[in-house]
Structure formats: C-alpha cells, structure tokens
Amino acid sequence: MRKDVFIIILLLLITLFKLFDIFADFQLDIPVWHIAQEAMLVLLTIAASIFLGYDLIRSSRQVKALKSKLKKADKEIDHMSAQMRSARQEYSITIATQFDAWQFTKSEQQVALLLLKGLSFKEIAEVRLTKEKTVRQQASTIYSKAQVDGRHTLCAWFMEDFIQE
C-alpha cells in the first residue's frame, strides 16, 4: 500500500511540475502543438493518479473487510476449539466408562484405545513394546468382552450414537 501512495504522490508531483512547465511555455511563445502535447500528458497523469487513488481506497476497504472477517473467523475457531476440547473430554470419559462396564484390564483399555485410533496390531505392539501375537490375543479378548466381532464393529459401537439418519 505504501508503494501505491508513493506512486500517487510521484504522479501528482510530475503533474505539478508539468503545469509549471506549461505556464512557462506560454510565456516563452512555444508552439501550441507542444503545449497541447504537454497538457495531454498532464491530463493522463491526473487520470492515472485518480485511478490509482480510487484503486488504493477500494483495496484498503477490502483489506479492512477481510481483516474483520478473519478476526470473526478466529473467534469462531477459538470457540469451536473450546467446544471440541470439551466434546473430546466427554467422549474420552464415555469410552473409559464403557471400558469399565466391559471390565477391560488396564492393558486391554490401552490396546482398545489404540484400536479405536486405527493403529495396526504391529503398530500397537511397537508402541506398547510387546509382541504382535500378544496384541492379537488381547484384541480377541477385547472383542469377546465387548460382544463384537472385530475392530470395525468395536469402532462402530462408539460411533453409532453420533451418526444420525
């Protein structure tokens, strides 16, 4: 924006100096075609200054409006983030309560959470520093206690209430 203001000021100064030159040319009896040519340059410079000035004002208003929208969007995101944190906490409590109802051991709860997050048996074994076979056995116990037939059904059990028809 500063560049635009600088260009407008520069054009206005050029216009001012050209006007002085035209007045001097009148006093020196310079040919009319030369004065007309300089007058045309002055008019074009004034037109360019007006155009740039208008464009600068329009751009400034757009920037101001966008800043306002951005500020409003930031507030909405902050509000949504707070709501998301709250919902996440409530959801975690709901999951933990259900794990307790299914009588999962602490180890099974950890594996079940990792299953819900979408980790593979191999990834869960790496995270828990155990063997993949152990994770598979724990998953089988989890599915049995929850009375589901696999990982997808376990995840669906927790998602079912969130999906509305």
Please explain how this structure is put together.
With 165 residues, this protein is mainly alpha-helical. Helix content is 84%, strand content 0%. It contains 6 helices and no strands. It has helices at residues 2-27, 32-101, 106-116, 121-128, 132-146, 151-159. Helix 1 packs antiparallel against helix 2 and helix 3 packs across helix 5. The longest helix is centred in the middle third of the chain and has 70 residues, at 32-101. It starts with a helix and ends in a 6-residue tail after the last helix.
Number of strands: 0
Unreliable stretches (pLDDT < 50, length at least 5) are: none
N/C terminus separation: 52 Å
Biggest pleated sheet = none
What pattern of helices and strands is seen along the backbone?
A: HHHHHH
Share of residues in helices: over 70%
Strand proportion:
under 5%
Query: What is the tally of helical segments?
Result: 6
**Alpha-beta classification:** mainly alpha
Shape: rod-shaped
Overall mean pLDDT score?
89
Rounded radius of gyration (Å): 37 Å
Can you describe this structure in just a few lines?
This protein has 165 residues and is mostly helical.
List keywords for this structure.
mainly alpha, 165 residues, 84% helix, rod-shaped
Layout of secondary structure:
Blueprint: H1 2-27, H2 32-101, H3 106-116, H4 121-128, H5 132-146, H6 151-159
